[in-house]
Amino acid sequence: MMYGLAGAYLVATSTGLLLALHWHHRFNYQLSAQMMVDVAVYSFLTLLAGGVSSGLSVLLLVSLAAASLVGRGRLVLFYAAMATLGILLTQSYGIASRGFDSSTIVQAGLISAGFFATAILARLLGQRVMANEDLARRRGEALDNQILISQRVVERMQDGVLIVTPGGALSRSNPVARSMLGLADDGSGIELAERAPKLASALQAWGRENGAETLQFTGADGRELRARFERTASSHGEVLVFLDDIGRIKERAQQLKLASLGRLTASIAHEIRNPLSAIGHAGELLREERRGEMQDRLLRILNDNVTRLDRIVRDILELGRQNRAEPELLRLDEFCAGFVEHFVAAENLSPGIVVLEARPQNLCFDRSHLHQVLWNLVSNALRHSSKGPGAVRIELGRPVAEGRVELHVIDDGPGVPENVREQIFEPFFTTHTLGTGLGLFIARELCATNGASLELAPSDAGARFVVAGRNDTCLLPEPNGALAAN
User: Has residue 314 got a pLDDT over 60?
Assistant: First the structure.
């Protein structure tokens, strides 16, 4: 009979195992059923073997401990109670009907107490294990998230970052560093000496503590770069190399200088505008009186200079308003047609001096900003042109790339000399006696505010300024230099 009971128990246990592996629903019901089978089988085996003195009842401790480790809540005490009832009833039955020693009931009670102690201790241990497992899982997730965030931050940094092993091999790099050094991939395993020998030599000298902490060298694309070295606390002893673009640093410094200059000049402009208006008004009153030719000539000089100063003040005040853009998708051909009509009427020009060559196009731009950009560009072109028929041309061609369109403003003048091409967009730089030096600077800044660009393009004759912007989705620069949809 014991062999038959053992075989049946084997079948029941195998069935429970298969259910646990392939059917994960109602786990507590499966565990409870398996535990009841264990209690029934071990109790019956204990009865057949002669009671608790045979030692088979102790095997229930193993099943009870395993069930308590994975059991939930009060079920653990339920399993201990079931085992206790099974052993006590079996032993009582053996004493009553099979002549077991009556003193063995005390041994059965001690074993039952052991059931409860084992269940409670195993449950406490299981709770601690599950808590530690949950803590380890949450910490692992937090570490993974932190690694992803750190990788994202490094990738989006505007400075280049290299991780170099003590042997001089590249371990990791961000896209900016790869662009600076001309790496096609992430550069893992490449020797730094192969890509930047000067940088590798400086890093080795710095590692021996007899070299400088910074180095200036020329990158793969000809940019002037500055490298800074910093040790890490990693077990492998990697070194961090930070690459800075000297040109970008200079550009940022210039922007800060221009911002300070703009605030200063705007403050001065506000103070100048009121007395300037008074001077202009006084000149108008003097012009109404009958005076000689000399007085008229002096009044014309006064009026011309007041007009010029007022234009300078307006341009300076406009510097503080260029960051407020409300872009919209404009029909560029219709907008330029209306602009040409208004410009010709305002400047009293003959028809045909400013010519528009356009086809239907869209451009995402602030309406007032685009009007000012075109006014500055066309006024500048007209000032340097022959002022004959077709002297200034506004051209709109086909889109140059997906989502991009260009607007060209061309004049038939002498063009921009090579020695000043890099300076024409600087504030207060002008080659004309009547210019303020702010028109092109303001035009470029307004283009940048609207997510577009303004460049001086090569031209066989005259000057060609190109405004390039989007013709599908309105994008604006974010504070960090990226583009955001509006």
Answer: yes
In sequence order, the 6+-apart residues with CB closer than 8 A to the CB of 145 are none
**Residue 406 pLDDT more than 70?**
yes
CA distance 407 to 468: 6
Bridge-based pairing state of the strands 328-331 and 170-173: unpaired
Beta-carbon contacts of residue 178 (< 8 Å; ≥ 6 apart): 160, 184, 185, 186, 187
Give me the chain's average pLDDT, please.
79
User: Would the CATH topology of 157-248 be identical to that of 328-485?
Assistant: no
Q: How confident is the model at residue 210 (pLDDT cuts 50, 70, 90)?
A: low
Spelled out in words, what is the top-level CATH class assigned to the domain 157-248? alpha beta
C-alpha gyration radius of the chain: 43
What is d(CA 319, CA 284) in angstroms, rounded to the nearest whole number?
29
Collapsing DSSP to helix, strand or coil, 164 comes out as strand
Q: How far is CA 407 from CA 75, 372, 462, 470, in A?
A: 78, 14, 16, 11
Domain 328-485 adopts which CATH fold? Answer: Heat Shock Protein 90 (3.30.565)
What does residue 483 show for φ and ψ, rounded to 5 degrees? Answer: -110, 140
Domain boundaries, the chain: 2-147, 157-248, 261-319, 328-485
